[in-house]
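B., you asked whether I could sanity-check this one before it goes into the benchmark set. Here's the sequence:
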Amino acid sequence: MVNFTLTALLIMLFSIVSIAAPLKVGLVLDKGGKDDKSFNSAAYLGAKKAEKDLKIDLKYVEATDTNAIENLHRAFARKNFDLIIGIGFAQKDAVKKIAAQFPKVKFAIVDGEVDAANVRSLLFEEHEGSFLVGALAAMASKTNSVGFVGGMDIPLIRRFAMGYAAGAKHINPKIKITENYIGVTGEAWNNPAKAKELALAQYSAGSDVIFVAAGASNSGVFDAAEEKKKFAIGVDSNQNWMKPGIILTSMLKAVDVAVFDTIKETQEGKFTGGISRFGLANKGVDYTLDQHNEKLITADMKKKVEDLKKKIIAGQIQVPDYYKKK
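And here's what the prediction gave me:
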């Protein structure tokens, strides 16, 4: 009887300890790092919010070398992390490989699609949000000429550019759009000097609003806009605060929300693999309006862009998608 009681007590104590053990989450950021004030920063903030609110055990690493990504994921998996989150399309192959090797570990990847039962792919409808900021750019332009500076020349960033151009042309079919890319390697995400050079050239050629989607390189475009007293448009996070009066708006991707919700659902035992999509309809993308740019967007501009948003959600406006380009 005593042995049975002790055994039962030990089982109960073990169960309590097991239940109390915090969820172990590993976050693998890409080259921009947690301080890029853009994509990675948003993911980091979402994970830190989960650490505070959900009491998870969070560890993060920054992949300064793309070749190291696979080993970073494997290291977390070998340490029995419950959930490993990769940030950026460049982590797709690594997540696919390591998820197959560790089927009991749960994975998530932002901006990459991996078909596996233990992987959740967090995908955003960037073209929808880009359409809205393109419309705002056209409304704000006094020269009928706007620009786009992309980071790495890849389909994802071309998707931003196509949506932006469509939004601008929806407002002004005759508007001129100049499009440049910083590079063809991952270094493009962290080269503000090159971004500034491209932006200065666009402003000098007549553009008076430039949308930039280039990670940590965005700051170069913002500096050029300030120097030339023109407008810039941020991306991923709300970057309006970085240059109040200069940044017209930001194309928001709710990466922080996607990361937080994935962690929360994992903790609650509700994790599922497959694709989770975030667009205008579920507030996964949007344009930003706050105290830093409210004087730049008139009531008429806001009314028009909100109307466009409703029409896109209702399917009355079909935003062209680079991924579906024939």
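One thing to flag: Residues 104 and 118 are 7 Å apart (CA to CA). Otherwise nothing jumped out at me.
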